């Protein structure tokens, strides 16, 4: 059993840091393996400031685990902890690179060793242990109730700290409802969590990541240099007059709502959980909405723009992706049932999205449907031009298609008389003329 750590005094954070990941061999800017990673924005920001290091092969390895010695080194740098002292752990020698870091952390009071007299510097640190260290370092009040919403078992010695760091916004859980207490914290998670410690406790530092965890969360009048994450604990989130230079990651789910009012997202909106409604209003501008789950996109006095809605995962059997907001381009990469209720310039059905269903509402105009995969088109709207590049394309008689272009060697689209609605979309009755 580990010893209880002493509570440390809260320290003022600063961006005047040495390289935080001092254990990595060489500074690498623009790591080759982080471009599509959820923590890319904060990793890139810290790399550009010389706060973290990557590896000689050009990678950062964001999902690699972190040792206890490495984590206390990061903690010391973020907190500017240079406390002097000695330690007498049997596995920590004065000649070890981490000796002074361990000594500083122990003497500052936010971590300790084990009852057998060891510190276990090379052991990977769990998310529960990381939560305890952060809570102690920041002087947070224990909050066991804050951890009750997680479905995994959290050790008794860590429950209060987990609840405290989640409430403070320093750490969050996973989309499946777990905290991952027993999991090793990854390099990306460590950087992300400590970045929140840094930015939320130094008013001179522009935030590079914000995590919303309150049941009814509000974020207003801010410029966020990195990502904004709406956690699974949130039921309604309102973002107003916010610029997000990274991604907006939405993890709240069915019957939950996210309102974006005068919000600019320079990265992507990433929807991870089923059933959420995202409402766009004011001059909200978004480059791309990445849809990984059934959802509804709506508009309320919307004067902005959405460049692309991209459906990246197969969701056809789970319900409809409803697009009730004007969009320049919809790209269906995987099989989906899509209901379009506002005008769209272009809808692309990828080859891998074969079997998708597209319902175009009355009075809605789609300038171009480019079908590289088999698709069923229903509804009462208008398609100005249909490019048929795959066999088996069908459309309901009530859909108006002004012009059809059929690729060489491809069967012409077929008109279907009737259809009935149900489940995840329309099931066309094969009364083909």
TrEMBL record:
Leader sequence segment: 1-30
UniProt name for this protein: S-layer homology domain-containing protein
Highest taxon, organism lineage: Bacteria
Pfam families, sorted: SLH
Stretches assigned to the SLH domain: 26-84, 85-148, 150-208
InterPro entries: Cell_Envelope_Struct_Comp, SLH_dom
Keyword set, alphabetical order: Repeat, Signal
Native organism: Anaerotignum lactatifermentans DSM 14214
